[in-house]
Amino acid sequence: TSLPARPQPKPGVLDIEAYVPGKSKAPAGVRLHKLSSNETPFGASPEVQAALADVAAHLELYPDGQAGALKAAIAEVHDLPASRILCGNGSDELLGLLAQAFLSPGDEAIHTEHGFLVYDIYIRAAGATPVVARERDERAEVDAILACVTPRTRIVFLANPNNPTGTYLPAAEIERLHAALPANVLLVLDAAYAEYVRREDYRAGTEMVAANRNVVMTRTFSKIHGLAGLRIGWMLAPEEIVDALDRIRGPFNLNAMAIAAGAAAIRDSAHVEKSVAHNDAWLERLTRELSALGLRVTPSVGNFVLVHFPDRAGHTAADADAFLTTRGFILRRVTGYGFPNALRMTVGSAEANEGVLAVLKDFLAK
Ligand code: PMP
User: Fold this and answer.
1) Which residues make beta-bridge pairs with 139?
2) Is the distance from CB of 124 to CB of 344 less than 8 angstroms?
3) 7 falls within a domain
4) What's the pLDDT tens digit per position in 45-75?
5) Residue 237: inside a domain
6) Domain containing residue 62: CATH number
7) How many domains does the chain have?
8) Which stretches within the chain are classed as H helix?
9) Containing domain of residue 278, as a range?
10) Mind listing the pLDDT tens digit for each residue in 222-280?
11) 113: CA distance to ligand 1 center in Å?
12) Ligand 1 centroid to 343 CA: how many Å?
């Protein structure tokens, strides 16, 4: 046999479907309302601009490889030990590092049916096998996850709340899941939307991480803090897990702008509160008004809603997407998440939200 003529990716890499982000373009001449990537309508805290100007004056310098100023700010605001925090180039990077550090070929990692798509990508990239737990009513189900556990299971990835459904599991269910998992299985609580959740029975995972050696929580600055463009995430984990990931990450995985901006943003609690109040009011109103139009809306606790369209020719999600797009409203197709006939809509500004409601009313009347 002859040698391959060119370098080949390792087995499995070309079976991975690349992540396709939400669209971000409106037709020429139409004002764009981008509601496709769960970004905040409020932008970043005004404090961020001043922090960035300082950094911009010294771009020749390497950033602090430990992102110390950012860890310190997170530790202070959330009252956590900085030694248990690791920052990443988006929480995506941290999810990938967890997969790299804990999964080998032959291992299995579990995610749920309509779970966030990057878990599957990182599990496969690590050479391991994704195992999909079914959901019930578009919500993760503890018993279904537990039924997937085998001696090969190494990680359970759970977005809480989940994207794109917006559903969540209450703390008691997460505890029941954890209690039944073998001690060598890592439970990854992806709490990207935690700040938006206003439910008494919800916990992002801070206490569970503190009390256990096999639980980590990931968070992001991309949503409530309005810094998606700078790529900043963080993880709370047992120190030995922080140590393991510190060994394999890029030495300067956060750039200097990200470190400074994140530290400024997280201290601006007024900005966060304003965003949460707006989201709360609109989440309720969008759910109510979209339902009144005859569309089924999955009950969400995040900053987005999953809207299901009728199976009627001319009124499907694809038709709605085309109709909205020509008017400048960009929602997210979620076919890749197993929802061929739904669109995910980010809670936007009042103007954008009202615009979508008006356009959908026209669309459904035609
Ligand atoms: N987890 C979930 C559930 C998400 O929806 C997202 C953003 N789409 C992320 C993680 C990643 O966020 P980032 O990498 O921007 O921190």
Assistant:
1) 136
2) no
3) no
4) 999 999 999 899 999 999 999 999 999 999 9
5) yes
6) 3.40.640.10
7) 2
8) 47-56, 68-78, 90-102, 118-125, 142-147, 171-180, 206-211, 239-248, 256-267, 269-292, 317-326, 350-365
9) 13-43+270-365
10) 999 999 999 999 999 999 999 999 999 999 999 999 999 999 999 999 999 999 999 99
11) 17
12) 18
Which amino acid is it at 309? F
Query: Nearest-CA neighbor of 128 among 102, 158, 106, 151?
Result: 106
- For the Cβ of 222 lying below 6 angstroms from any atom of ligand 1, the answer is yes
What is the complex's ipTM, to 2 decimals?
A: 0.99
Ligand 1 atom having least distance to the Cα of 228 = 15
Contact between 261 and 52 under an 8 Å Cβ cutoff? The reply is yes
Q: Is 163 in the pocket of ligand 1 (CB under 6 A)?
A: yes
Instruction: Please check whether residues 249 and 334 belong to one and the same domain.
Output: no
- At residue 285, the pLDDT reads 98
Q: Alpha-carbon distance 66 to 70, whole Å?
A: 9
Assigned domain for 141 exists: yes
pTM for the predicted model, two decimal places: 0.96
How many residues in total does the chain contain? 366
Cβ–ligand 1 contact at 141 (below 6 Å): no
- List CB contacts of 49: < 8 A, sequence separation 6 or more: none
